[in-house]
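Worked problem 6 (solution included).
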Amino acid sequence: MIAKKKRRAARRVLLKLSGEALMGSLGYGIDPKVNSSIAAQIKEVHKSGTEIAVVIGGGNIYRGLSAVTSEGMDRSTADYMGMLATMLNGLALQDALEKIGVQTRVQTAIEMHELAEPYIRRRAVRHLEKGRVVIFVCGTGNPYFTTDTAAALRAVEIGAEMVLKATKVDGVYSKDPVKCKKAKRFDKLDYMDILKKKLKVIDATAVSLCMDNDLPIVVFNIKKKGNLKQAVEGKKIGTIIK
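Solution. The predicted structure is:
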């Protein structure tokens, strides 16, 4: 009888963390307990030997697209304001990680020398190789591109083996599971399924970029402790898109 080969934990991953994940049950801002809990999960993965980078959103502080729709604000202006919100979240996560002994570097797509390093791919890779967690903020630095797209782009650039999309639910559903109790959860999906079914769990541009580079996406619930480590180890959790 041939023994099953044990799955190898990913060597390098990129975690896409939404701003909303940081606010927990609050209606706005950052919940310190949630921030610390996520930092602890990142440390658990980092301690196991996996190199981890993070792209963080800013929706808990400012949603640019909502301002365009409700207030008639110029799209570029609104998007730049949203990018600045990601800097606040990135610094908060850095603080939580360094308080528990994890060395980090924040790299920004919009230069702010007093707060973070400018994004330089080779430097980011070097930080990861030296055992630091790298937090990417300000998206791609360009309006009209979401932080999902930034996550896919940075993952490809640094040679990550997968994108881990952290959400409030345990995978991809046919409809919003909060609003529809009969919504179906998918264990596996093809990249084209996301595009054809117009499932809004991740931006279409990000999906296309991952598809072109054969980069798997795992959508999982970050609220449950231990889920991040299980996703990195390749265990059946959430929904895998590949």
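Discussion: The chain has one domain: 12-241.
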